[in-house]
Design brief:
Strand content: 25-35%
Shape: globular
Helix content: 10-25%
Number of helices: 3
CATH architecture: 3-Layer(aba) Sandwich
Number of domains: 1
Largest sheet: 6 strands, mixed
Bound molecules: inosinic acid, magnesium ion
CATH class: Alpha Beta
Length: 181
């Protein structure tokens, strides 16, 4: 695989490249065009990147959006360390931009159980957002996951993926492709 001899891997093996650079680039371009068309009448869109996983996807996506937009980020607390899943998601970093009355595009790296989004969306709506749509690069389409995701880059295999923002124990985020561990 393309990881062979890749100094970025620090000698660790990845199983296979699932989405290569050119595949990602083409899909991000398509998403950018669809998003540009969808919000053309909408005034100024606020694009909110959910850190850290969305950082590369967001950076590429916003460069394909031909609209006047604003960009901000949020950091959500992770919800579980084996504890009950009943806790509210908390924002560790608040977007500086006011959300009141705004159309928001929330950009996420991957939808797995859907828990993060299921908790975050009501929170953003409670802060007065006019509407919140989600654009996720990857969606594992696990059974029972019903959270509403308007744009999906790829329906992902149910394996652990890294690269292009996604990490394993904070490694691999910087890879320009997506691979399975
Ligand atoms: P959810 O709340 O279960 O949908 O989890 C979403 C979050 O879990 C993502 O934003 C990622 O941070 C992380 N995650 C889920 N699956 C993967 C994966 O395959 N690779 C890396 N991170 C993942
Ligand atoms: Mg994430």
């Amino acid at each position: 695989m393309s990881g062979d001899g890749d100094a970025r891997l620090g000698g660790r093996a990845l199983q296979r490249v699932v989405y290569g650079e050119e595949t990602i680039r083409r899909r991000v371009r398509e998403l950018g065009a669809e998003i540009s068309a969808a919000y053309a009448e909408d005034g100024q869109l606020l694009v909110l990147g959910l850190l850290k996983g969305s950082f590369l996807f967001l950076a590429d996506l916003v460069r394909e959006v031909r609209l006047p937009i604003q960009v901000d980020f949020l950091v959500a607390s992770s919800y579980g360390a084996g504890t009950s899943s009943s806790g509210e998601v908390r924002l560790l970093y608040e977007p500086a931009s006011g959300l009141d009355g705004r159309s928001i595009l929330l950009v996420e790296d991957i939808v797995d159980s859907g828990t993060t989004l299921a908790r975050l969306l009501p929170l953003l709506e409670r802060r007065g957002a006019k509407r919140v749509d989600v654009c996720a690069l990857l969606h594992k389409r696990l059974p029972g996951v019903t959270v509403d995701v308007r744009w999906v880059g790829f329906d992902a295999p149910n394996s652990f993926l890294v690269g292009y923002g996604l990490d394993h124990a904070e490694d691999f985020r910087h890879l320009p492709y997506i691979a399975s561990l």
